[in-house]
Design brief:
The complex is a heterodimer of chains A (266) and B (357).
Chain A (H helix, E strand, L loop, with lengths): L1 H34 L2 H9 L1 H34 L5 H13 L2 H14 L1 H8 L8 H25 L4 H8 L4 H12 L1 H17 L2 H7 L9 H10 L3 H27 L5
Chain B lengths: L1 E10 L2 E10 L4 E5 L6 H9 L6 E6 L2 E2 L10 E4 L11 H11 L4 H14 L15 H13 L5 E5 L7 H18 L2 E6 L2 H7 L2 E6 L2 E6 L1 H6 L4 H6 L5 E9 L2 E6 L2 E5 L5 E6 L6 E3 L8 E13 L4 E6 L3 E6 L1 H6 L7 E7 L4 E3 L10
Helix pairs in contact in B: 2-3, 2-4, 3-4
Classes of the chains: A mainly alpha (266), B alpha+beta (357).
Chain lengths: 266, 357
């Protein structure tokens, strides 16, 4: 018996910690999902306000994710394929938003668009970011762009540039080689990065509330909705909103896992 | 015909230093050198992937130095095949034709022709990663030749496949070269491959081309010690050569060896093991060296016997099992070693870089 504990003690210890954590997380999730009565749940799901927030979240997250992809692809290509002056400084700068609290990012956006001549000029031509859905999109984009660049840079770097060399000798331009060979080969990394950016966009709170505020039925996304319901003591509605967010996150995680795990076998 | 003149290029840790090389129409040129010599960099510069810092490249007399790779009609086959994993073999082979906007009926016909030439017709619907190394290699060659390139560049095309497949692919490459007549530049670090395939061999080391000659000349008359050792030379000695009675005599240690070379002074001397004949009797002819020697060791190499012999200088020689039996080869036995003065190659002691270990 003593020998058995000696042999298996460490295994027992690590597995116990793992199980304890698993129960803890499962309990949290279970508690949120079962907090609201079922009637309250369905009521919340059909209320115009929650539906507005759901649509607003999906809409802004989809646009901001699309913009992230558009901006991240050329940036990641440049960082993984070319050498240029100041590359390491640029890489570091582009990485900073990952480490910043999103509140700080939102605060920066508010200062920039609310108080600088550039922000004022944009406002004059009709691009209003402060307290608007446009601000929500910008907040999500700014918070997510760095990790999108990182994932795509890692994906491109893992693909031998000789694939593109071959494509170029066979008649492609650099752009065609990237579009016909590099991008399809990066498909899995791109899907994984998109799923994560979308899910993070849906759930973004700090940066969104700083620049877009929390106006009901105007700049209300699901996290904002959750916050508003909770501040007014509507815990059951808040739990229903939280449950929707849980389902969406789990789905994106599933997509991410499916593609990220099998990714990079070229 | 492709003319490379005075190409210099630095890239990562590799460099090309003032490289000039002319490859004739339909020639099979092998560039031979150790890893790190800059062979792939040279190949990619010819293909247009890299711009040279200096120098120019002409194809059929036309300057192509600044031309984008896609317009050069120079195709590359890399050692790791680089088949596009997201496309079937058919799409891979048709890639170049499609990129150049060939009509789809012609694409199909050409894909089938080249697949047939390489014996991979039955694999056309498969994805590259489901195929063996040899099959992928054939597909990569098919993808290159289907575009009917003016020059075909092969980067260590056989180093990732097993020995058996290598031998078969040697024959294939010769056949394909005969069939397509494409001017070919093949790079390798293996001398046997270079010897077997090349019309000529360009030996490269440290970013420089140091000898360009036919395979037998590179093998028998390496330009310097480094090449002699790189091509597997044994029996290399240092000596002093001087003409006595119209015959070049080289003094190596206590032995004197006659050579038909005209090089004199401080020289290196090499005799290929297979050019040395062992017998019981002396041959007394002016064009032969015939020395009395003692067998110091015998190594059974399976297909042949290697003997270490002391003839005043330590020689290594190879002989068939039959001949070994005939001369009753055994350690300590006294024998006569004979080799032609023509087979005693002399070269300067000039040293071109360190040998790879």
């Amino acid at each position: 018996m003593k020998i058995k504990i000696k042999q298996h003690g460490f295994k027992l210890f690590t597995i116990t910690v793992t199980l304890a954590l698993t129960f803890y997380i499962a309990f949290l999730l279970f508690h949120i999902v079962t907090y609201a009565r079922f009637s309250r749940f369905t009521h919340a799901l059909t209320s115009p306000e929650i539906l507005f927030a759901l649509k607003m979240s999906v809409f802004t997250a989809s646009i901001s994710t699309f913009l992230c992809v558009i901006a991240a692809l050329p940036t990641a290509y440049a960082l993984s394929r070319y050498k240029f002056h100041g590359k390491s400084i640029i890489t570091t700068l582009l990485d900073i938003p990952i480490a910043l609290p999103s509140l700080v990012v939102g605060f920066g956006l508010l200062l920039f668009f609310g108080a600088t001549p550039i922000g004022k000029t944009l406002e004059e031509i009709g691009l209003v970011f402060v307290f608007t859905p446009l601000g929500i999109i910008l907040a999500q984009f700014t918070v997510n762009i760095s990790s999108m660049i990182r994932v795509m840079k890692a994906t491109f770097s893992s693909i031998n540039p000789r694939y593109e060399h071959v494509a170029r000798t066979l008649g492609c331009t650099r752009f065609q080689a990237a579009a016909k060979v590099l991008l399809p080969m990066s498909r899995q990394g791109l899907i994984a990065a998109t799923a994560i950016a979308w899910s993070k966009g849906i759930g973004e709170f700090g940066a969104v509330i700083m620049i877009a505020g929390s106006t009901r039925m105007k700049t209300e996304t699901l996290p904002i909705s959750l916050f508003l319901e909770m501040s007014t003591g509507n815990l059951e509605t808040a739990a229903a909103v939280a449950s929707i967010l849980i389902v969406m996150s789990v789905c994106s995680l599933a997509v991410f896992e499916k593609y990220f795990k099998t990714h990079n076998h070229f | 015909m492709i003319e490379i003149s005075h190409i210099s290029k630095r890239y990562d840790n590799f460099s090309l230093e003032d490289i000039s090389l002319t490859i004739r129409e339909k020639e099979y040129m092998v560039i031979l050198g150790p890893s790190g010599a800059g062979k792939t960099l040279l190949l990619e510069t010819i293909a247009g992937i890299h711009q040279p810092d200096k120098g120019e490249i002409r194809l059929h007399g036309k300057d192509i130095t600044g031309m984008p790779p896609g317009e050069r009609h120079i195709a590359v086959v890399y050692q790791d095949y680089m088949l596009f994993p997201h496309l079937t073999l058919e799409q891979n082979i048709g890639f170049g034709l499609k990129a150049r906007k060939t009509a789809s009926s012609i694409i199909e016909k050409k894909i089938n022709e080249s697949a047939e030439m390489l014996g991979i017709t039955h694999l056309l619907h498969r994805y590259p990663l489901t195929l063996s190394g040899g099959e992928q290699q054939r597909a990569a060659i098919a993808r290159a030749i289907v575009t009917e390139p003016a020059v075909l560049l092969l980067d260590e095309p056989l180093s990732a496949v097993d020995e058996f497949t290598t031998e078969r692919l040697h024959r294939e490459l010769k056949r394909i070269h005969r069939l397509t007549g494409a001017t070919t530049i093949h790079i390798t670090h293996r001398f046997d491959e270079a010897y077997l395939l090349g019309d000529r061999i360009a030996v490269m080391n440290n970013g420089k081309i140091i000898q360009v000659d036919s395979p037998p000349v590179i093998f028998r008359k390496p330009a310097n010690l480094w090449i002699a050792q790189f091509v597997g030379g044994k029996n290399i000695f240092q000596g002093h050569a001087a003409i006595i009675n119209n015959v070049n005599h080289v003094k190596v240690g206590s032995a004197t060896i006659k050579s038909s070379s005209s090089l004199i002074g401080e020289v290196r001397l090499s005799i290929r093991p297979e050019d040395i004949y062992i017998s019981k009797h002396t041959f007394n002819e002016p064009h032969l060296n015939s020395l009395t020697a003692v067998v110091t060791g015998i190594t059974d190499r399976g297909r042949f016997i290697e003997a270490q012999i002391d003839a005043g200088i330590p020689l290594i020689t190879v002989l068939s099992r039959q001949s070994a039996h005939k001369v009753e080869l055994s350690p300590g036995k006294e024998v006569i070693v004979t080799f032609k003065t023509d087979d005693v190659h002399l070269f300067t002691t000039g040293h071109q870089g360190a040998l790879p270990v």
